[in-house]
Amino acid sequence: MDVAIASTIRNLPQRPLPLPQLYDEFFDDFLLADELGYSHIWQPEHHFAKDQHNPSALPVLAALARQTRRIRLGTYVLLLAFHHPILLAEEAAMIDILSHGRLDLAIGAGPMEAECEVFDIPRSETFGRTYEALQIVQKCWTEEEFSHHGKYFHFDNVRMTTKPVQRPHPPLFMAAVGPQSAKRAATRGYGLAMALGPAHNTYLDALEGSGRSLDDVKLVSGPVAVHIAETTEQAWDEAEEGLHAWISFYGDRGSPMAAGLPPVGELRKSDFTFGGMPFFVGSVEKVKQRMREFFAEAPLDELCLAFHHPGMSAEASRRAITLFAEEVMPEARTWGDRTRRPEPPQHSAIGPKGLRH
Asked: Biased composition, Basic and acidic residues: where in the chain (predicted)?
């Protein structure tokens, strides 16, 4: 399977860095990932967070489009309910042009309640808005002229003249964590982000029912937390505070996945999992062995790894990214059995109210 980097640009609230410095450090990580052979840089979107969570993936990807040469660039996830579909289609096409055809879009249909309130989008509408907007985006990319009259959007005689490099358009993925979204994504032929989650098998059933096969799509994991150091104790010393802050972000917004999160100092001793997935923290051999147990036969095309946890030093982050690429990635590329069906974890939705759609 491929191995991607999906580190989120965010601060540790109790020790924040100036944002220009923070972004510089993460960009150094991303450029290193390009050199070391990672398959993707995936960037998310969340708003109004106390950790200054990256609020928009597209500017980051546009900058990386001109600074990288090989690695693919993607949103994971883009909260499409908050975006105008025609403007998004134009901006995404520009990034695909700037990167010479290296853009992917993974979409999320369930923004958090607090975000919806500020953007004045009823949470009950986000699913419908997302899938209708995706139809419009695809029309922008594939049709010379179109009109659209749906439940949420009305346009006449749209002629988008800036088309993406990739044909018919950049690959689309849906971060489906509930059955309704999984079925819709499979029927439309979108790839599955959040693979291994509770909707994985529903997605496969709907894919088969729509006359499509696994050869038509790609299966991408949710972000998996990793940190490697010379010893396991050193790795936890460097990562534990940041991992705790990462999970607390979701706990503060009501996610059941943060229930039972131990305090810093106890997290490393616990069997706490995030959406059914443990933290892969330790020495090279410990991390490799633990990941082999989880992913050697996992039904995935790509494993997404989150390095550089909040508050972590840039040096520790770059060391972990390099060690993984040199010591673990060669074996990881041999892992995977995409035809298998996973046993879904009990709590896999990253959101404030549990499973959505």
From this structure: 334-344
